[in-house]
Amino acid sequence: MSASQYDVMAPISPERMEQIISRQKSYESTRYRLAPDVKRIWFYLTAPYSCIAYICEIDHITPMESRFSCTLKSIWRMRKSVELREMKERYGIKVAPRGLVYVPTCIVDAHPWRDQQCLWTLERNPRTTVPIASSKPTLKRKLTRSVEEADLMDGVHHKLLKVHHAPQLTQTFSDDKMDVDP
């Protein structure tokens, strides 16, 4: 099994992935030195998702004190996530990635990154983009409907985008009042 010299796979928690999707984080840091040829990071979402769900284009790699940092140029959501079971059965990967590994060319060929759904990019004219939901407060009814529509999409990773960009509704301890967190 040969590996792509331009694509690496890295495990990431769903919480950290939410920060990247919402642009709270515009870089990714790693303790591993990336080769200068690396152009993309394929993110493997850890449990409970256990799948490759997002691809990020990276710009340049900057050495830090004990880590390396790279600027994220764009984030692409895979139209069909690659689950761990499929990685093992179809692509010959024996275990879930625990660190940085090169992506096998068979995965890169089966899931071309430019055919995926672009969530955001720094480019002026991206090929395919998904509108990001506004951050203004909405009714709980509307939030519930958005999540239900998202459930019709393939995979489980889509819930990160829909739920994160909608306002967080939390119930207070006094009466039946609701607070809306921006």
Structure in words:
The protein is of the alpha+beta class and 182 residues long. The protein has two domains: 3-121, Hypothetical protein (Archaeosine Trna-guanine Transglycosylase, Chain: A, domain 4, Roll), CATH 2.30.130; 140-181, no CATH class. It contains five helices and nine strands. It has helices at 14-21, 84-91, 105-110, 140-150, 158-165, and strands at residues 3-12, 27-30, 40-45, 51-63, 68-83, 101-104, 117-121, 168-171, 178-181. Strands 1, 2, 3, 4, 5, 6 and 7 form a seven-stranded mixed sheet that branches. Strand 4 (51-63) and strand 5 form a beta hairpin. Helix 4 (140-150) runs antiparallel to helix 5 (158-165). The chain starts with a strand and ends with a strand.
Short description:
23% of the residues lie in helices and 36% in strands.
Average pLDDT, all residues: 75
Radius of gyration: 18 Å
Helix content: 10-25%
Strand content: 35-45%
Key traits:
two-stranded antiparallel ribbon; 182 residues; seven-stranded mixed sheet; 5 helices; alpha+beta; 23% helix; Archaeosine Trna-guanine Transglycosylase, Chain: A, domain 4
List the helices and strands and how they pair.
Blueprint: E1 3-12, H1 14-21, E2 27-30, E3 40-45, E4 51-63, E5 68-83, H2 84-91, E6 101-104, H3 105-110, E7 117-121, H4 140-150, H5 158-165, E8 168-171, E9 178-181
Helix pairs in contact: 4-5
